[in-house]
Amino acid sequence: MPDADTSLETLRSEIRGFFAKEYPQDILARLRAGETLHREDHLRSQAALAARGWGAPHWPAAHGGPGWSLAERRLFEDEYVRAGAPTVVPMGLIYVAPIIIAFGTPEQQRRWLPDILAGRSFWAQGYSEPHAGSDLAALTTRARREGDEYVVTGRKTWTSLGFWADWIFCLVRTGEAARGGAGISFLCIDLATPGITVRPIIAIDGRPHLAEVTFDAVRVPAANLIGEEGQGWTYSKQLLSNERIWYAHVEEKRQALRQVRELAAAMPDANTPDFRRRLAETEIAVSCLDGFVERALQDDGGDVASLIKILATETAQAITELSLDLAGGLAPPLLPERGAGWHDAMPDLPGFIVPAVEDYLMTRAQTIYGGTNEIQKTIIARATMAL
Ligand SMILES: Cc1cc2nc3c(=O)[nH]c(=O)nc-3n(C[C@H](O)[C@H](O)[C@H](O)COP(=O)(O)OP(=O)(O)OC[C@H]3O[C@@H](n4cnc5c(N)ncnc54)[C@H](O)[C@@H]3O)c2cc1C
Description:
Blueprint: H1 4-22, H2 25-32, H3 39-51, H4 70-83, H5 90-103, H6 106-117, E1 123-126, E2 142-146, E3 149-156, E4 167-173, E5 184-190, E6 196-201, E7 210-221, E8 225-226, H7 232-246, H8 250-265, H9 273-298, H10 305-327, H11 353-364, H12 373-385
Parallel strand pairs: 1-4
Antiparallel strand pairs: 2-3, 3-7, 4-5, 5-8, 6-7
Flavin-adenine dinucleotide binds next to strand 1 and helix 12.
């Protein structure tokens, strides 16, 4: 029987072989060239991973996960980043699927999980509303029960990739209470249902990443309710805990820091003692993050999720600030849509800089979404002081 190290090395070479041959090479090439990916690219990426049995490393084997140990999952993550594959879009695979697995009925699991796994459906997260962000329990989108249906009326906002999505999971108010966690339910809604309008919102980098989704007396089958009516707040907290741990992206950060280090070595003007100190501090912060993630993966992660969220997002911002420092006074343009050959029009600009500007701008949002970092500090303070 092979020892653990040998089987890890066997898995490593299988994964490398997969990314070198079976995985769509055009997606890797376009990402390397700094081109913009679209909905179909993400779905195709997921379909290729699922076809190999690696579409959902963190799902239980009974629902299509590969049944990997923690070490195997981490190895896969390392190799995924090393291959230069796109960051997984998390709303279906990482956010809602574990909730469907934990609280959904067998019928709901059969209905939604295979499509998420195989890259046949795209999901969005409908939590925030115009007057319910940090104070999420103030949400007012209402779902009134009428026979076998809910009639949903209200407005969700800042919905990431809402215009790409087929489905949205929403927190809706089903109880009589006007505010607070009681009476909130977790409902999955087909975005093709009459009465739904999705309007794009242009983000800071010039792309329509976000959407406003309005529901005007939308009739949703009651069979789309996850778990019990009125228990949505409990499920949503578990989802947010998973979401906050997901932000860690340790290996992506290490890869980005390696790139910054290599670029800086060739740019003596930018590679100052102060720059090297910040680079070293950020590398240390990523090692700390790695330790917290290890701990979170070994238990349910709830107690360190807020810490991970703060450290992951602040470190992500620090990395993009280092990248932009390397751009010096080059004043790169904002290019929201980069197709093939986008760089030919600006041969004097190093290729990394335009995507780096986009990353810099988008990481500003990381300390806001998923619960702002100020709110995470309150959660930590409450837990540590047992308030
Ligand atoms: C790029 C992006 C993508 C997003 N994607 C989604 C998505 O897919 N689905 C979704 O549902 N939502 C999404 N959001 C929304 C996000 O979750 C909210 O923006 C966030 O929860 C903050 O809410 P708010 O914008 O209403 O700000 P507010 O809650 O109004 O906060 C404004 C400021 O006040 C501070 N503040 C508020 N209350 C307190 C307090 N009690 N103590 C200390 N400070 C406080 C906040 O930290 C913040 O700095 C996204 C947001 C962004 C920017």
